[in-house]
Amino acid sequence: MTTRLKTSLTAHAIGVVLWAGSLNAIAQTPDLPPITDADRAAAFPDLPGHAAHDRAINYYVLFDQLEWQNASEGSALNWDASAWIGGDLDRLILRTQGESESGHTAKAELEALWGHAFARWWDLVAGVRQDPRPGPSQTWGAFGVRGLAPYKFELAATAYIGESGQTSARFEAEYELLFTNRLILQPRIEFNLYGKDDLQRAVGSGLSTSEVGLRLRYELRREFAPYIGVTWNRKWGDTADFARTNGEDTDETRVVAGFRIWF
Length: 263
Fold this sequence. Notes:
alpha+beta; twelve-stranded antiparallel barrel; 3 helices; 13 strands; 16% helix; globular
């Protein structure tokens, strides 16, 4: 018998012995103890953050726009802030936006909405809106949908039913383009439509106003970011006619500077 054959048979014999020894060791291993609740708790500890689909109450406050603008009638202060409190599926949403020119509130809105998640990233909303300015105070019923569309476009479409049968609709869209993790360009558009003329507030039926904005911010911290930008505001249709009659501009370009803050 050759040396190579002897070596092969010896290695094979050693393998058989080791395999038999392993089987014998497994056979002699005592039964493992059952898994207890303490074992499960140690394996799956509570983690910080928002728990999914539970009864935890969370909140979020955002000043998306808190800015100075160089309006044609002088400098203006503009704000757009929102907050929510609730769980994963249902939450109370509060929002305010408006503008102050030369120390006087030119327009202001307050919204209180109840939001219910009906799909991933999408909420149905319903509630009330109050407009203290311009003109006499006005109350609206509100309902709509808002959420995150594919490619991370934030969209909101809201319909309003006001006093004396007035109706209105608003469409908003924005996107965040990251140049770096901290330098972010935010394009935003908004359109407002009305069902009929409102002479007290110089608002015409159909497409009334639009705003297109570009804001470039730098996040010194995630919660605090100064920004600069530009907006293009335009009045359309009968609303533009009312503005011309009152000696007002129908389109305007504004340079803006402000802060974005959240907590």
